[in-house]
Structures are given as C-alpha cells and as structure tokens.
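Our collaborator T.R. sent over the components below with a one-line note: 'Predict the complex.' Nothing else. No constraints on interfaces, no templates requested, no preferences about which chain binds where. So this is a plain run: every listed entity goes in together, and whatever single assembly comes back becomes the starting point for the next discussion.
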Amino acid sequence: MVEKTESLDNSMVQKIKKGEMCMKPKYVFVGIYALIITGIASLFLISAWFANVLFYKVRSHNLWRYLSFGEPGMQAFWHNIPFGAIILALLIFIAGIFWLKRFDICYKKNFTFITIFFLTAVVSSALLMDRYGLNKTLDQKKYLWEMYHNQFINPDWVIGTVIHRDPKGYYIRNVDGRFFRAVPITLNTKLPNLNRSECLKIKGIITDEYTIRATNIYKCSYRFIP
Amino acid sequence: MTDITDEQIAKEIVNGNSELFGELVRRYEQKLVRYTTYILQDKSAAYDVVQDTFIKSFENLKSFNTERKFSSWIYRIAHNESINRIKKSGKEIFNVDFDFLKELMPPDAAPDVEFEKNEINEILKKSMETLPVKFREVLTLYYLENKSYDEISDILRISIGTVGTWINRGKAKLKKILQELY
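Returned assembly:
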C-alpha cells in the first residue's frame, strides 16, 4: 500500500527509471487484437459452414419429398436433418457472440441488434456457401460422408421398411425407393420379428446392388437411431 | 504543463519521454482514489488499486489510441482492477462519505428537522450497502466524477442506452431504499 499519496508520482517515475516498470511493445497488442478478430471471424465462419450443411441437405436430398411417404417418410425426414450440424452451428455462433461481448467489441451498439446482425450474416454466408458449390467437393470426402449424405444407405448399412419376409430374410425398400434383400451372414444372426411396413436397420456387407449380408438387424425406433 | 492534454502527454511518453508519466499520475491520482474508494468502499484498498492502475496503464500505454480520451481509458483500467479486487476479496467494506448522494434523498426522508451530517451519511451508507456495484458505479461516475454518458459507456463498456437505464434504476433503487428506511 502507498502510505503517502503525494509521492505516488515520484515513486512511479523512480520505478520507471529503475526499469521496474516497462511498456509492452506495440506488436503484442497488435497480435492479441489480430488473434481476437481472427478467432471471432473463424467462429462465425465455422458456424456458417455447419448451417450450410443443413441447407445443402434440405436442398440436395429434397427432404420435404420424404414427408409424402407417410410415417416412414416422416421418420426419414427427421433422420436426415443434421441435428449435429445444427447444434454445432448454434453453439459456435453463441461462442462467437460471447467473445464479442467478452472482448468489449461493439459495446456501443445495442446487443440485440448485434446478435441479429451476426445471425443474418451467418445465415447469408451459409446460403452463399451452398449456392457457390462448396459442398460439391466436400461431400466426396469420406470423413464427411455421415454429415453430407442421405443416411438411409451407407457402405455397411441400410435403413428401410419391410415389404416382405421369408424364412431366409427380409425384403426392404428404403426412402429413395431402392429394394434390398437382407440375408443373415451366419445362421446365428438373429432376425427380429418385424411385420410389413415396420422399419429396420441392417448392418452388414452390401454384396451387390440389392443384397446385403446382415451381421445385425435392428428394429428402428421412431428416430431411426443408427 | 497544464495546457498539454493527457493524450499529448501519453504520446510523448510512448515516444520515449517516460518521466512525463509523473504528470499523468498527478492529474489522475486523486480522481482515481475517489472513484475506486466509492466502488470498493475501502480507502486503503483503493490506494492499492490506484497504484496497480498506474502500473498497468504504463505497461499498456502503447495500446492506447491517442485519438480517444485518456481519462476514459485509465478509468476503465481502474474499473477492471476494482472489480478484480472485489471478486478476489468476495466482500465489500463500507467506510466512506456519501455526501454526494444527498441530492438523491427523497424530500420526505428528513421530516421537519434537518439531519445531522453524520446521520445522513449513516442513512446513505446503509442504503448504498444494498445497491449492486454496477448501480453504485454509474451513480459515482455520473454524479461525482461528472462523466458524460458517452464517457461512462467507454469506461464500463456498455451501450449509452444502458448507461441511462442504470442511472435511472440506481436512483430509483436508492430512493426506494431510503423511503423504506424512513
């Protein structure tokens, strides 16, 4: 504690002279500022990319068409909505807004206005990303397959509704209208007792265009949880 | 020296004339001690905070934009240091003079006889105890430090609209507390 306030100015000058107090170089502040701005911009861009995945799926898979399939179509619709991408887009957007507030950027403006402005910017960027074909290259990447593609057929599983059952397996049709014959890969593979129109997920090896040798067959719940 | 602005002095210091920092300390020491005392309500803690404020302001002087007001910048540092001190200690001590708040007293608070100065101070102390720091701070900056809404906005990093809202709410709360007490 400083006992005599009158001498504070002198004590400060003395500290400066002795080198106990030093000014930080300007590049430190420039660097920190650049990092903050880059971080915030990156958060909004990543958020826009996840939102773009939603727009891409709705547009390219024509998700509204699924609804005309009745109950299975409804399930397909919900199953194909990329909830993970939506949640991540929202969380990252909130993180961006939090950073804006945390680092006192735009404090002069109304916070609701700022939030609406950035939300509009993120949605517009997402639409532009989708419009200008960013997804065309990305949806070919294997690690993005789950996020980009119709999730009713995968290299090792198929989801569809039962149209016929015989002692050897099931005949199913997926939402895209493709037919598959699912046969157990071994005699031990259990076949659940499913009726016509019920949904199931078959995990196994797709051997040709319409046959899948099933290692597991599950009855799907409403949400088709894989 | 008095005709040189704070911003010009800051520029000179950055350019190498470090001894001029003493002038800035002289100009702001009392103001900042008064301001931080009202926030912390502990004079000795306020002195410590003011010392830290000057050290931080010198260390970070190269980040100061001389196009903006130096007073808002240094008050901002003092505000941050005070808030950090409150968070650290987790409690607030009251040991200050609240004379400046007399004008906020409702007219019927003192019935016929004039309150003694100490008595009024006591009432105001008790009333202020219940006010959140944010309201105490805007009231101090506006009424005691004579800062404009724009400057308060820069110091507290809130919008100008919020400054007005907090001042009005702070006044209303204080009046309500005083009315409940008397």
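Summary for T.R.: Strands of chain A lie at 153-154, 157-166, 169-173, 179-184, 199-206, 211-219.
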